[in-house]
Amino acid sequence: MNQVKFLLTTVFVLLAGLAGAQDRPTIEIDINGGLIEPLPVAVPNFVAETTGARRLSGDIATVVMSDLASTGLFREIPGTAHIAGVTNFNAQPVFSDWSVVNVQALVTGAVSTSNDGRLVVKFRLFDVFAQQPIGEGVQYTGTQESWRRMAHKVADTIYSRITGESGYFDSRIVFVSETGPKNDRKKRLAVMDYDGANLQYLTDDSSIVLAPRFAPNGRDIIYTSYEGGLPQVFLLNMESGRRSQLLDDTTNMATAPRFSPDGTKVVMSIIDGGNTDIYQVDLNTRRRTRLSNSAGIDTTPSYSPDGSQIVFASDRGGSQQLYVMSASGGEARRISAESGSYGTPVWSPRGDMIAFTKIRSGRFHIGVMRVDGSRENLLTASFIDEAPTWSPNGRVLMFFRETAGADGAPQVYSVDLTGRNLRRVDTPSFASDPDWSGVLR
Amino acid sequence: MGLMKTGLMLAALTALGACQNGGIFGSGGNGGAGQTPGGAIEESSLEYFATEIGDRVLFAVNEATLSDAAKRVLDAQVAWLNQYPERTIVIEGHADEQGTREYNLALGARRAAAVRNYMVSTGLLETRLSIISYGKERPLEVCSTEACWSKNRRAVTVVAGGIGNV
């Protein structure tokens, strides 16, 4: 639980030595463009400037390269192809050594341990063909255990300088870890870095758990659990491990909770008999306010990033469709217009798109549409693709894909907003219901 | 809580019995814990309820409407419950895997509520029953075709303990 704690003290620009850094990058990737030829990049081992840092010089470079390559926007020129490594972080790179093996972006770095045992990571980014640095060098200081986070911060900065988008590598995923056969599945909550590292279990597998969601503070989780018999919504603080049931309710079922963007409220479904409606719960007073009142199933609410609106799924008109209403409830307008049924809508962190699950002709899709329902784009298709969640920068979606048949089981996948770069996220067992945190602070 | 746990455990047992017998009122049971050595199943037993009366009703895709066949099973359940007034029941609603988890949780509740409402309308005391939904979390059959899905779209009446409990 205390692994979450991390101190990233200094982030300052390295001015020493290398003049001529440019404000405008010379290499740019337009993520919205058509087919993208991945940019060839080299991340040679970081220079270990103290003996204590030697063990991490290769590991940090590996994580940085892995982050960049995972986007599908960068292609690794591996160490075996390099003519020479980097031995002096402050010397100008020999650009011809890199251009000859087709490297276009070069990342050089150094790692050292300070007198008080803290880790210092520095890096520079170069345009090999222009023989110019891209931006200034940057230095991060943190605890030794947080070396992966510092590597993610390096990769985030590189990604941001080249694509013009904010990074997302220094982030976490909370999800449902699953084991056992299909008719006796054991489920427990787990949290891990976005790339699968540093996995921790948050609950045991004695009760069914569903759909954990991060609070904006990144420390609290809200989820559905059957631990009291009926499905109910629970809050969990990851640092203390303290868990509490959100509402003191022993007759109704509750499900599908999400935090408001300011973290003061929760929006969720309460199932009263056979009718499911959306409620808002104030986290201070624990008072509930009913937001929807239809005879249909109203569920999976998600706030707009400014907190003013809520998108949700409802079958009030017959089939399951997506609706938007004010965050204070009232009239809802249907936004999904195509054929098929829709579920699990999630508002993008940028505010302009909604991701959803779509079921049509027996196939499941992850799709996105504009907030007004226009420009629907289905990104994936399989037996079951379900429950998308957005990367902090709104460029990538994670979801779970469940295979068919008696041995069918879920795994978490990621895909770009463009539909490209479908990848399985590595987890130690079956995994579902991912939720992506914001970028860590 | 203790009561609920007992009920769920028994549900697992009765489920095994029922899936072989179709769960239609009057269909033949074929032995088990409640059967006397050379004779019929004890009528007050949970096994009798599960196998002779039928402890579940099935639903069409995305529906919570009770068919006439389902109503006949529920009538027989109520008749049995009227004979053993100390018994309470939990109605579990379930869905097949063709739907999102959250929607299916609500759909399972709708099915369980349809059973509850029907039973109450035929005179069963509301205080004797409660409902829970498992959505698609607890499939009975594991294949991914209609043959399995049709059995998973179910509401199961789980009889809790009481006097004469097996």
Describe the protein.
The complex is a heterodimer of chains A (441) and B (166). By secondary structure, chain A is mainly beta. Chain A folds into 2 domains: 2-163, Rossmann fold; 174-436, Neuraminidase (6 Propeller), CATH 2.120.10. Chain A has helices spanning 57-70, 95-99, 147-163; strands spanning 8-14, 39-42, 47-48, 74-76, 105-113, 119-127, 132-133, 137-142, 172-179, 186-193, 200-201, 209-214, 220-225, 232-237, 243-245, 253-259, 265-272, 275-282, 288-290, 298-303, 309-314, 321-326, 332-334, 341-347, 353-360, 363-370, 377-378, 384-390, 396-402, 410-416, 423-424, 430-436. In chain A, the strands form 7 sheets. In chain A, strands 1, 2, 3, 4, 5, 6, 7 and 8 form an 8-stranded mixed sheet that branches. In chain A, β10 and β11 (200-201) form a beta hairpin. In chain A, α1 (57-70) crosses α3 (147-163). Chain A starts with 7 loop residues before the first strand and ends in a 5-residue tail after the last strand. In chain A, 47% of the residues are buried. Chain B is of the alpha+beta class and 166 residues long. Chain B has a single domain (2-23, 41-159), classed as 60s Ribosomal Protein L30, Chain: A, CATH 3.30.1330.60. Chain B has 5 helices and 4 strands. Chain B has helices spanning 2-21, 46-54, 68-83, 101-121, 146-152, and strands spanning 56-58, 89-94, 129-135, 154-159. Chain B has a 4-stranded mixed sheet with strand order 1-4-2-3, sandwiched between helices. In chain B, α4 (101-121) links the parallel β2 (89-94) and β3 (129-135). In chain B, α1 crosses α2. The interface between A and B is large, with 41 and 33 residues.
